[in-house]
Amino acid sequence: MYFHIFVVGETKNANLSQGESEYVKRLQHYCKIKLQSIKSEKITSRRSPEKIQTVEGERLLKRIPQNSLVVVLDRKGKNLSSEELAKRVADWQNRGIKHIALLIGGALGLSKTVLDRADFILSLSRMTFTHEMVRLIFLEQLYRCFTILRGEKYHK
Length: 156
Fold this sequence. Notes:
With about 160 residues, the chain is α/β, with parallel strands linked by helices.
């Protein structure tokens, strides 16, 4: 299984960036994974949030590899426990899905077009996190999901 993770903007916080790198490294034992940053739009008072989301969304959609299952992170998505996420990933594997494109929006979130394109919308929490923190939290949860599937000690 190959996870293509596309995020809007760079992670500026060095600690979060280091955490992302650590979990990408750990995940490489279980799956192929590539974390790519997409250019974010500058937020100004002259541009509507919808216009910024649209431009960023178009950039994300262009990156989705063909025949990928598209998963987006959005606060209005489905809340799953770590175990439920592991079951979902196992189901995707059992169905023969080879490529999963995971899309994480920028500071303003994702456009309606991106949300409409999603095969699955996942929420990490009803709480709000910075878009930089969400990247690290998701990578950790994906790692946890694979350790659950393998029956390893990481998940307690």
